[in-house]
Each structure stands twice: as C-alpha cells, then as structure tokens.
C-alpha cells in the first residue's frame, strides 16, 4: 500500500497528482491518519463517482476501524456532508427554500461595501503593505456569513481558531479540537435560541421557519446546517479568494488584462477555481457494495477519496491543463462538486470571490508579493488548499 506523501501534496499537489494520475486511475494509499483509502485521480472516474449513488457519504457505512474523521456530536454531524437520500433530498429541499438565488443576489451590494471598508482600513495603515489573508481575504467571508446567518456584530466570534482546529488537528494537543467542537456547539445552540425568540430577516431565521407540508428541520439538522454554512462557506471562500489573488500575482499579464476588462471576472473565477481551488479532495465516500472504479475493484465500506485537484488538471479533459487560461471554456470543472452533493453555497462563493477581486483590482494598481515566492507557506492539510499568509505591497 502506497503512503500519501503529505509534504508533496501540500507543497506541490498538482505535480504529485500528475504523477499519480499517469501511473493509474485509482491508488491504494495510506492517509495522514495511518488509515487505508482508495485515491481516485482521473477526471472521468472522479466525475462519475461524485454522482454515483453506490458511494455513500454516511459514515455508518464505513468498515469498523477503516475511517476516523471528525468526532462531532449528533447536533453538528447531522449535516448534508454526512447524508444520503432520502434524508439528503429532504433536508436539501428544505434548505433551498430559504437559501435562494435572490437572497444571494441581494448580498452583492453589501459584500462590495464590506470589501471597500476592509480595503479602506488596509490603505489607512502607515505602510503600503499588508498580509492580505489576515486583513482582507479572511475577514470578508466571515462578515458575509455572519450577515447571512443574522449574527449581530457584537456577538461575532473569531471562528478561525475553531475551523483551524478541525481542518488541521494538532495531534500533540487533541484538546484543541474538543474545545473547538464544544465552542461551535455552544455558540450555535445559543444563536438558534435567540433567533427562535426573535426572528430576523436572515437565513437562520428562515431555516427555523421553513416548512414542507408537515415536514421541518429537526433541532440537530438545524444546528448542523448552521455549522456547515459557517464551516464550509467561510473556510472555502477564504482560500478561494487568496488562491485566486496569488494566481493572478503569479501571472501579471493576466492580472493586467483582467484589470482592463473586469467584465471577464465571472469566467476568471471559474478558471481560478479549476486551476487551484480550495478543496483538493471531495468529502470521503464509502461504497455500499463491492464496485469498480476506473477498472479497479473497491470493496464495500472502504474509504474512497476523490481528487478534485487532480481531475481539474487532467489533460484527458482539459487541454494544456497546467496553463491558467482566463478565457477557457467555463463548464466542466469540479471545483464545486457534481451531482446531488454539488456545493449548496456555490452561487455565494462565486459572488464573494468575484466581488472581492473586483474591489481589490480597482484599488491597488501595482500590487505585488512582499516576500519571495518560495517563502509562502501552505496550511499543513491535504483536504484544504490554503495559504498561511499572503504578504503584499503596492
């Protein structure tokens, strides 16, 4: 069994996945937690698997001892990333009644206002330099998510420590993960109680009120949905924005073209997500029966990891896949998933990233990295692709 080279997947994920992809479509690997898994690397296989009902997201279908994952209480675990139909169909159907395209569209002006306010604060500093992750790409999504959920400014927390503890657990300090889970649980329980007592014009209040005949979200489903919206919406968007900025700084000609033609931002965000998205791996899956993936037999209950990062650079589907091409055909990338588990917050993530880039490109005409390119460091995780910091000057 081939161990995953964690260092290589963090420092050079695309080169590492390219070698794996050419060596074969599916690999038997040992993950960072020492547990076995099947890693799927080629576009056609990954796309089919993302929509295959025989691959379950419900961890109850995992073989005993084969999968560890987060140890979340039921009130946080009853979310769409751990559900199959018919539960997934029912809960997602209720959520889309509240999380509508109209609600996302109404956020566009407030998001731009927040982006401009954050950049005002950056410009007000004495030096013409900043850590863009700390001052802009990080705060923007959390403010947007809190506005979406209806969290008042004086009740907002710094969620970064909690989400970091879950994404990159410190094995020498396991108490940090337990504290993060307890903090998130307590926070959302109190927030839902407050919204139930005093509803507002926000997504969480609408989720509390939503009904489908006699159906409704259970208390655990409601709490875990609030957790998922924060966790996925915040974490992924932070790194989608930061990765996109770094990619453009690495390609100054494309940056200049995009600044001259901001109408191309929508297509650019699609290509930037394909080229270096925030989620290298889809959520783990467990076969409900023995099955073949890419011609390889995978037994029921074993862990399957679908590499979105590898699929999105597969030359069998994307011509010249390692080239960042902002005019590339937009359809087909898997950065936001595929099938019934396609990212529920995809319209919000796209809008936030497009708005964040537009505000940044208008404000700073000559932005560049403030450290040598090889001094940048990535978060020590194979499930999340995100920088630790992004120092820039202008």
UniProtKB/TrEMBL annotation:
Keyword Isomerase: no
InterPro entries: Cyt_P450, Cyt_P450_B, Cyt_P450_sf
Oxidoreductase as UniProt keyword: yes
A Pfam family hit: p450
Parts of the chain that traverse the membrane: none
One of the record's GO molecular function terms: monooxygenase activity
CDD domains (alphabetical): CYP107-like (cd11029)
Gene3D superfamilies: Cytochrome P450
Record keywords: Heme, Iron, Metal-binding, Monooxygenase, Oxidoreductase
Family, as annotated: Belongs to the cytochrome P450 family.
Full protein name: Cytochrome P450
Organism per entry: Streptomyces triculaminicus
